[in-house]
Write a structure and sequence with these properties.
Layout lengths: L3 H37 L5 H25 L2
Helix pairs in contact: 1-2
């Protein structure tokens, strides 16, 4: 069983992971909206889509971090 300090640190890290996941979801949603707007206006979306993929990759890392912390 983790010590009180260890448990508190774990809960802090878990809360941070949850915040990162929520923030990441908002960023991903905004980027998707931006891509739709760019497409609608006839602009190239290659770079915007590449950035979206990076955001999604980072989001997967945040989710994996949360999963790891929950398993601790």
């Amino acid at each position: 069983m983790p010590s009180a300090i260890g448990r508190e640190a774990l809960l802090d890290h878990l809360a941070m992971a949850e915040r990162h996941i929520a923030q990441g979801a908002a960023i991903i949603d905004k980027q998707k909206s931006l891509i739709l707007e760019l497409e609608r206006d006839g602009h190239d979306t290659y770079q915007s889509r590449a950035l979206l993929r990076q955001f999604e990759d980072v989001q997967q890392l945040h989710v994996a971090d949360r999963t790891r912390l929950i398993g601790s």
